[in-house]
Amino acid sequence: MKLLCIGDVCSPAGVETALHYIPELKKQYDIDCTVVNGENASVSNGLTASDASLLFSAGADVITGGNHTLRQKSLHTVLDENPFVLRPDNIKTEYGGGYALIDKGRYSVAVINLLGQVYIENPKAENPFLAADELINRAKNDGASVIVVDFHAEATSEKRALGFYLDGKVSAFFGTHTHVQTSDIQILPGKTGYVTDIGMTGPVDSVLGVKKDIIISRMRDKKTDKFEFADGKCMISGCVFEIDEKAGHTISVESFCI
Fold first, then answer.
1. Between 11-29 and 49-58, two packed helices, what is the crossing angle to 10 degrees?
2. Beta bridge partners of 169
3. How confident is the model at residue 121, as a pLDDT?
4. 50 phi and psi, to 5 degrees?
């Protein structure tokens, strides 16, 4: 089977970009399952119910989240009612969860969403290693032969460590949150497909999706201007994992940035 993973969707313009390109990518790569990180899709960060609907209409099977997921109150009900809209499971809140099971007929795909602890203080996450163990056991009990992890984390070291810890236990592991696609795509010794960060879907002429002048002034002059998403041409970044659905092993990994 082939799994399409789309990097952090940033801003309404990023949503429009996803709407345009995801159907094309699914056709190009003959995709069986699509996971989209949508935690920055709203104009004020987070994900609204309407944003989620648009990403599903674009072709997402599961929408994963991150540290901004709970910001939009309109999503709280969606998290409870739609099992395919996730927030990191190791954020302890009454809304939703970080685990989804997709029934593909001949096989099932489990998607796990976790948040890092290093350099991310709000919201505070519990131990992602222990949370991963718990959810992988759940996936195996549910009969999932393909297990996918979206680890929304800041520190490269934390992503690498969790990736190696889960090598051989999951089919594919990809990082999100830092919005810059990394070049370390690989298949780990235990046949888990891995990449530290799959990048973002949003404005090209920006600093991680935000207007560059705002970020420069905050860093150079210590100003505290409110973040605003940049305008203009957008990009879409992500990764395609080809997975042996019987063995649960990654066969090949390919990144893209359009």
1. 20
2. none
3. 86
4. -70, -35
Residue 190 identity (one-letter amino acid): G
Alpha helix (H) ranges present in the chain? 11-29, 49-58, 74-81, 128-141, 156-165, 212-220
The tens digit of pLDDT for each residue in 147-173 reads 999 999 999 999 999 999 999 999 999
Structure tokens at 139: 């996936």
For position 225, what pLDDT does the model report? Answer: 84
The one catalytic residue in 20, 68, 152, 177 is 68
> Where does residue 223 rank: exposed (0-12), middle (13-18), buried (19+ CB within 10 A)?
exposed
pTM of the model: 0.96
Contact 128, 91 (CB under 8 A): no
Strand bridging mode 193-195 / 172-176: parallel
Task: Give the residues of the chain that fall short of pLDDT 70.
Answer: none
Taking a C-beta distance cutoff of 8 angstroms, is the pair 83, 119 a contact? no
Helices (H) and strands (E) in the chain, counts: 6, 14
Residue 68 is a catalytic residue = yes
Backbone torsions φ then ψ of 110, nearest 5 degrees: -100, 130
Structural domains of the chain, with CATH: 2-204+233-257 (3.60.21.10)
Tell the burial category of 46 from Cβ atoms under 10 Å away from its Cβ (0-12, 13-18, 19+): buried
Distances (CA, A) of 90 to 15, 43, 182, 183: 26, 25, 25, 27
